[in-house]
Each structure stands twice: as structure tokens, then as C-alpha cells.
Write a structure and sequence with these properties.
11 strands; 12% helix; mainly beta; 4-stranded antiparallel β-sheet; 2 helices; single chain
Length: 171
Amino acid sequence: MSVSARRRVGASTLAAAALVAVASPAPAAAAPPPYDAVFDAGLACAHFDLGVNFDSQPNTIFREFTDRNGNVVRTINAGKGSDLTFSNASTAVEVSLKGNGFVTRTTLNADGTETVALTGHNVVILFPTDVPAGPTTTLYVGRVVYERSAEGVFTILSTTGESRDICAELG
């Protein structure tokens, strides 16, 4: 299972950690499960913080392809991927997905954009700044093609196959 999350994951995770650090002491309660990534409500799911755990190390192969000048023009990442657990951080409802085969083919375009083709089992998280606008977290089994701008905005170009709305299952 591949997760097409972006560099923005770190910022949202840090923001969530900062909120916990400045919160006033609360009565003793069970500690929330640790998340590998947290997306604030409104980023990956509309009404709740989305926690994501990577339950296994991905078994993947990564290759770069260069032009005659040594510039990377394409990459391929393929393998089994990670087992993933998605959690509604408010209710602790979880959805677990086994790592299944995926292939990610990325073409680096001259204008600084990237065209990415995903096949197999892939989770795509769209933020409100993406096209179409999120927040959505969707498992695609099939093919997804999107363009990523130099600023990190995803624009979905096409999808085929089956999709599964993770936010709806957790909501």
C-alpha cells in the first residue's frame, strides 16, 4: 500500500504536537495511540483529525532514470507497501488496510511539475487546495493519474477501477 501524502504531512503533524504541548492538564485518561502522521480536521477528512499508522516496513524497489546529461527524468517505485491503519482521532474508530502491490511512475516535467501514474492499491489524500478540492482520503484499486505542481498541489487527471472513501468509513 502506497500513501501519496505530501511534505505537508510534517507541518500538520507538528501543528498537532504543538497543540498537545500547550493544552492545560486534563484528568487522567487512556493515552491516545501514537500516530505516524496526523492530518488536522479539514485537511484529509472534513470533520475530524485523521491519524495514520504505518504498521509495517514497506518492501519496495525504487529506480531513477536519467537523460544523457544525467538529469532525472522519471522514477519508478514498486512493491508491496505498508500495512496502514487510519483512525478518527476523536472516536478511535479505525480502518486497517493490508499492504498490497503498487507501482508509482513519476515523470519530471520541464516546467517543474510532475505527472504521476499510480497502479495497484494506493491511498490518495487530497487537501482543500487540490483539484478536485479535498478533504478526501481514498483507497484506489486500479489506476490514478495526477499532476503535482511545483508548489505541491495535486490535480487528478484520471481514475479507473474501484475507490473506497476512508473518511466516510471513519466518520
